[in-house]
Amino acid sequence: MWLAASLFSALLFALFDVWYFLRAVLHILLAAAGAKVRDILREQTINGIVLFHDIDFMGHMNNSRYLRECDFARLSLFIHNGLFKAVRSLNSAMVLGASTIRYRRSLNLFEQFRIQSKILCWDEKAFYVEQEFISRRDNFVCATMLCRQNVLRSSPDKLLQFLCKRKVECPDFPEEVQSWINYNMASSNKLKRERDYNTDPKQQ
């Protein structure tokens, strides 16, 4: 019995990222139990610490772990401000459409940090979210991430109208966000041109 259970657990951890799902459930429960925030632009904070499974050969947090931690922080943000509930109520969904992260200083083993997440603005298709990794040692911003959270089968305006029972005006787009959007559009157009070129018989 114990051998079968051990083999099943080993197989489960080998085939699935079990810790990811356990942490996601934990974040959902903690955020759901916390105080609800109706200010859609209010910054939300979660705390973290760099552990052994987070580090790479250099002894600091692996680059991919930053993106993983941002996932949990955005989940907490959307539960606290009510967007998670609005998405479910409207039978909609949100997926990450683009992200850019800039590393400024390493987070080392056992270093404590916090992730501050906030919605900066939105358009007809997506919310734009900023997330910062801040060392609790000296409040230095170790990394900053900008992401586009696409809304499927609805729109940011509809979600906010449902949530706030009124039309919510979008703040002005920060200069760096507009430049980032322009870059993404240029990249998308480039890939479309390459696709059209490769599928056009006249170009063969």
From TrEMBL:
Any Pfam family hit: 4HBT_2
Source taxon at top rank: Eukaryota
Gene3D superfamilies: Hotdog Thioesterase
PANTHER family documented for this protein: PROTEIN THEM6, PTHR12475
Family in the record: Belongs to the THEM6 family.
Protein name per the record: Protein THEM6
Gene, per the UniProt record: LOC103185769
